[in-house]
Amino acid sequence: MSAALDPVIHPAHRLRICALLAAGTTLELSVVKEHLDLSPSALSKQVAALVEAGYVGQSRHGGDSRRVWLSLTRRGQRAYRDHVAALQEIVAASAVDVPAEPR
Known about the structure:
The chain is mainly α. It has one domain (about 10-95): Winged helix-like DNA-binding domain superfamily/Winged helix DNA-binding domain (Arc Repressor Mutant, subunit A, Orthogonal Bundle), CATH 1.10.10. The protein contains four helices and three strands.
């Protein structure tokens, strides 16, 4: 296997956050929260880990400073693509290496 799993993205909630952000360019934090059904503190912790790694950027637009917008950085986009590729390699290798059960 050539691709490696990213330990920052690998936890399920962080992977789902990255998947949402990869599908859209910029999403409001409340939209991400709604899709993941996480408490505000749990979401904050997961987003903070992605921001600290440089994978997600946070911004506030317009006059409403309470609204936080999230987007994947270039580094985050690359890390997410590589992580998904590693997962796909694992799945592909599993399908080839496991012999079928005789009937």
